Design the sequence.
């Protein structure tokens, strides 16, 4: 094929990661699906080569100066890439954990909403609910004169609100106009003595127009000063009472004031509705919507211990005991306990006094002492974070905004009421609005933009979400589809979109809407490259590239490329599953529960007062359409409350009436697809403790005994046996400023991580570096005579990771590989009674063939007397479960009920279950 063909992206000699010198052409302006087993090289091809090379070339087109400020993409190991167009990556892993990011802010809908409410909203008094009208100058004068006789106050004109700059010109002009004083950041200054302001810091500046005292005969002077303050303050002014019983500022304006309550409101601006701006953010929580507080159950998780035994964890040392001992003894005499009394024998009053203080004895309380400590040294603040929980802000109740912003309404909704509605309801509400007069002209472009953007989110199956939903609470698939909806609104043409499993978290019912969305991007003239395992998406593709035949070093080859009709005839793994030659057979029998966990009156998010029994000793699948309440039930309600019962931190636990049957649960573990380590130092051998056994074997070698080497000698994380030139990394990073950092193999150890003396120790002809380079399969043959080590290696093989190298950096493992390594560590334990495992969408990143392996290892956990709960849409996982809880019937406000519960066969037989229709 002509490599300059503009109708394709031509890749030649791709050897990045495990790719084996691939040469291929990816057709442009088509929907192309890349499939294959986990770890076979799909993401390497799509993201590390196509996307990264497109980004890198764009960045290289910029000046060297500009490149210093942009993230640098590593150059992939590929000979040639031609036919590239600008690339946009929509990955799952980029879901933000910033508590300020919401669905509305990420999609930029919130920016239009702020203008919408600022231009079309009307103030309503937060006290009496009446519409707020403009206040005249005379009314402001009468309000001030009504203050108590003798009250000292200042009249100020707000000039600058939270703006950067030195403002020297402003001060010079005020001085020239004859003014004497200003208030900067709350501090009063003479204009001759104003300190130089920092240029890059935001400042608030108020002009002092007059200083007065309420007494007879001041009316004329007051009226003149009020007029001047309103003129300088652009129809706004501040009455600042000095001293007395009620010092402070009162905001007044000729623009908006309640006639009954005399409450004045600020000017309507878009900034008033921003919880990321001081003008709009709730002052208590600074716009986050929640506050941190010290939780006694985290401070003292083990109620069976006494104070002397370290029952209060922050004081579990002799110094603290000596410091607070005398006061606690005095407290105990009053509340009938000693320092040796177990905490679970404290009366309610004694418990309250211990943690929150007792005035009679002068004991401040554990929580106030910790709060004081948090305000002091930052190091201690970091340490005490483990004893804190978050709860909705007591001032705004989670609304994030000031009361003034919440007092603005369009029709019958304020900003928070609107952003709390589901996107579907919000869209319907906007479409039903009617405006008159000049408001019609203002509303038309805003409504058009808002309805378009909300419509795109409905198209990708997110109609159940609300605009106020925190991004940190979304699944990877939901976050990716939100960004996909944003791209639909951008209208770009000639772009290569690279997506990572957009179907994750999507019920089979909604698959077609997602496929239609991808098609709409492609029809505009874009190339859509999707890494996907979902069968309907693969069948809809124009072109399929299958990487394989297996994972890791057994993959990295193209086993098929071409249209779907040819894939259905191909002798590839995916082709066999699509034809039905291979399939996952459901188990012949279903296990019976050994007990139940009962959750009562669950009202978390959209759950409607649910009573639910979750069986123990079996594998349960919680399913239902997107947004039906699966995560709210399992993660927010069950998991977080179990953590709290075990004295562990769990922010924002769901709202439940009660929980029973948890006495048999000894530990609860959530196994997700997050990396097993954040640095290349972490690897499968260290994570599964296999490396501990290997180091013991090497420490027992004859040469080690002669030299006195202990197991620590064979660790690359500590001094002694590691290469000190690279600190055990095997490579050295060279910073290149505006070019990507270069990693150079360490010249001292040649990338082996250890010093020469350590590498001289061999076991059966192999040194420690050789062993770390072995795959699990090779290690099983090499260490066949070590039963303890073999048991752990066998488990890694059972979960389908025979191809993984023992020392493979954690950062190079896929999400599915990381999850199976976590499961293998649990399977390595002989028995698991009392263990509860929770997995949220575990089939993410797994090929159909690997889903079968996952199901087998989950059943192995249950066979060891554990309980497994899976949140999943995959029909094979649902059919393999012993018990299914199907939530719905719809998403958001249309969900939150249990539609069906029982064995998969009972779900299929239930006509109300949407899920059951896809299991047949």
Sequence:
């Amino acid at each position: 094929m002509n490599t300059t063909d503009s109708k394709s992206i031509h890749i030649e000699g791709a050897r990045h990661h495990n790719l084996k010198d691939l040469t291929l052409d990816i057709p442009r302006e088509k929907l192309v699906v890349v499939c294959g087993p986990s770890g076979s090289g799909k993401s390497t091809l799509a993201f590390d080569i196509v996307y990264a090379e497109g980004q890198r070339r764009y960045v290289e087109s910029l000046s060297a100066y500009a490149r210093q400020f942009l993230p640098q993409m590593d150059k992939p190991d590929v000979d040639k890439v031609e036919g590239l167009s600008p690339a946009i990556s929509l990955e799952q892993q980029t879901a933000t954990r910033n508590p300020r990011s919401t669905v509305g802010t990420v999609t930029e809908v919130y920016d239009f909403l702020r203008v919408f409410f600022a231009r079309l909203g009307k103030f309503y008094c937060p006290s009496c609910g009446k519409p707020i009208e403009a206040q005249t100058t005379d009314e402001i004068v009468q309000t001030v004169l009504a203050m108590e006789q003798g009250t000292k106050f200042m009249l100020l004109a707000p000039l600058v609100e939270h703006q950067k700059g030195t403002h020297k010109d402003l001060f010079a002009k005020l001085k020239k106009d004859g003014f004497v004083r200003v208030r900067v950041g709350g501090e009063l200054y003479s204009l001759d003595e104003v300190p130089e302001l920092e240029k890059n810091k935001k400042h608030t500046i108020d002009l002092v127009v007059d200083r007065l005292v309420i007494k007879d005969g001041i009316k004329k002077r007051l009226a003149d000063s009020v007029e001047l303050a309103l003129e300088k303050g652009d129809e706004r002014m501040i009455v600042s009472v000095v001293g007395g019983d009620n010092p402070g500022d009162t905001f007044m304006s000729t623009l908006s004031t309640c006639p009954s309550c005399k409450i004045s409101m600020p000017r309507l601006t878009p900034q008033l509705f921003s919880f990321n701006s001081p003008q709009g953010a709730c002052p208590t929580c600074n716009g986050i919507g929640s506050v941190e507080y010290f939780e006694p159950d985290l401070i003292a998780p083990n109620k069976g211990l006494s104070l002397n035994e370290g029952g209060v964890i922050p004081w579990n040392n002799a110094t603290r005991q000596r410091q607070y001992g005398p006061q606690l003894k005095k407290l105990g005499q009053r509340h009938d306990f000693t320092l040796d009394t177990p905490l679970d024998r404290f009366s309610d009053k004694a418990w309250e006094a211990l943690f929150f203080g007792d005035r009679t004895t002068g004991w401040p309380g554990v929580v106030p002492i910790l709060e004081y400590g948090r305000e002091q040294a930052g190091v201690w603040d970091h340490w005490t974070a483990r004893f804190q929980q978050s709860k909705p802000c007591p001032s705004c109740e989670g609304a994030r905004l000031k009361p003034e912003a919440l007092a603005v309404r369009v029709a019958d909704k304020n900003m928070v009421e609107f952003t709390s509605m589901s996107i579907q309801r919000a869209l319907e509400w906007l479409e039903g609005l009617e405006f008159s007069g000049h408001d019609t002209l203002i509303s038309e472009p805003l409504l058009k933009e808002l309805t378009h953007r909300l419509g795109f989110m409905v198209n990708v199956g997110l109609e159940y979400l609300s605009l106020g939903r925190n991004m940190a609470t979304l699944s990877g698939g939901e976050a990716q589809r939100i960004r996909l909806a944003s791209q639909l609104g951008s209208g770009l043409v000639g772009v290569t979109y690279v997506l990572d499993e957009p179907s994750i978290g999507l019920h089979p019912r909604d698959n077609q809407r997602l496929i239609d969305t991808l098609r709409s991007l492609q029809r505009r003239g874009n190339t859509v490259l999707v890494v996907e395992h979902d069968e309907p998406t693969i069948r809809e593709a124009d072109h399929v590239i299958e990487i394989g035949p297996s994972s890791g070093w057994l993959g990295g080859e193209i086993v098929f490329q071409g249209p779907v009709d040819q894939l259905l005839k191909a002798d590839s793994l995916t082709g066999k599953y699509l034809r039905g030659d291979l399939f996952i057979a459901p188990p012949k029998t279903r296990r019976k529960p050994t007990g139940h966990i009962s959750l009562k009156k669950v009202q978390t998010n959209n759950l409607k007062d649910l009573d639910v029994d979750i069986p123990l000793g079996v594998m349960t699948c919680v399913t239902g359409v997107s947004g039906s309440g699966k995560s709210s039930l399992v993660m927010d309600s069950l998991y977080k409350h179990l953590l709290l019962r075990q004295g562990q931190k769990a922010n924002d636990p769901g709202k439940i009436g009660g929980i029973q049957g948890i006495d048999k649960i000894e530990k609860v573990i959530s196994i997700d697809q997050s990396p097993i380590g954040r640095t290349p130092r972490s690897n499968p051998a260290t994570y599964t403790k296999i490396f501990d056994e290997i180091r013991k074997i090497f420490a027992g070698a004859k040469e080690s005994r002669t030299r006195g080497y202990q197991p620590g000698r064979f660790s690359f994380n500590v001094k002694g046996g590691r290469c000190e030139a690279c600190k055990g990394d095997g490579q050295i990073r060279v910073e290149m400023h505006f070019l990507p950092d270069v990693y150079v193999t360490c010249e001292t150890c040649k990338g082996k991580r250890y010093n020469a003396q350590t590498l001289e120790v061999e076991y059966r002809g192999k040194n420690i570096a050789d062993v770390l380079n072995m795959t699990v399969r090779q290690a099983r043959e090499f260490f066949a005579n070590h039963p303890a080590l073999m048991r752990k290696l066998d488990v890694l093989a059972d979960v389908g990771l025979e191809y993984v190298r023992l020392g493979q950096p954690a950062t190079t493992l896929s999400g599915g590989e990381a999850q199976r390594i976590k499961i293998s560590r649990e399977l390595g334990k002989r028995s698991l009674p009392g263990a509860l495992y929770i997995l949220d969408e575990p089939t993410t990143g797994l090929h159909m063939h690997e889903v079968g392996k996952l199901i087998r290892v989950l059943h192995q956990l249950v066979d060891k007397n554990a309980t497994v709960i899976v949140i999943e849409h995959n029909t094979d996982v649902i059919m393999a479960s012993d018990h299914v809880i199907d939530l719905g019937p719809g998403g958001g406000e249309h969900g939150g009920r249990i539609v069906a519960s029982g064995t998969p066969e009972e779900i299929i037989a239930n006509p109300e279950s949407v899920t059951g229709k896809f299991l047949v």
Summary: The mean pLDDT is 89.
